[in-house]
TrEMBL record:
InterPro entries: TRIQK (IPR024842). Keywords: Endoplasmic reticulum, Membrane, Transmembrane, Transmembrane helix. This is Triple QxxK/R motif-containing protein. Its main location: endoplasmic reticulum. The gene is TRIQK. It is a single-pass membrane protein. It is found in: Endoplasmic reticulum membrane. GO terms for cellular component: endoplasmic reticulum membrane.
Length: 86
């Protein structure tokens, strides 16, 4: 019977460790939440590289479109011909 009573009482060192563990958990829980939110934001955020690549692709398409029509619509003018000549 004496042993059963002895096991229910905890050592002060164990109680102190348990109390410190609870305090550390309380401190780290908001920090962990902030770290998790920061990681989520980093995953979903569009980076500068992606924006630059999209802008470069749009610029290349516009340049190709312009060059195509510039070369297609430019007409070689023959200086010997007079446009007012009938």
């Amino acid at each position: 019977m004496g042993r059963k009573d002895a096991s229910t009482t905890k050592l002060p060192v164990d109680q102190y460790r348990k109390q410190i563990g609870k305090q550390d958990y309380k401190k780290t829980k908001p920090i962990l939440r902030a770290t998790k939110l920061k990681a989520e934001a980093k995953k979903t955020a569009i980076g500068i590289k992606e924006v630059g690549l999209v802008l470069a692709a749009i610029l290349a398409l516009l340049l190709a479109f312009y060059a195509f029509f510039y070369l297609r619509l430019s007409v070689d003018v023959d200086p010997d011909l007079d446009p007012r000549e009938d």
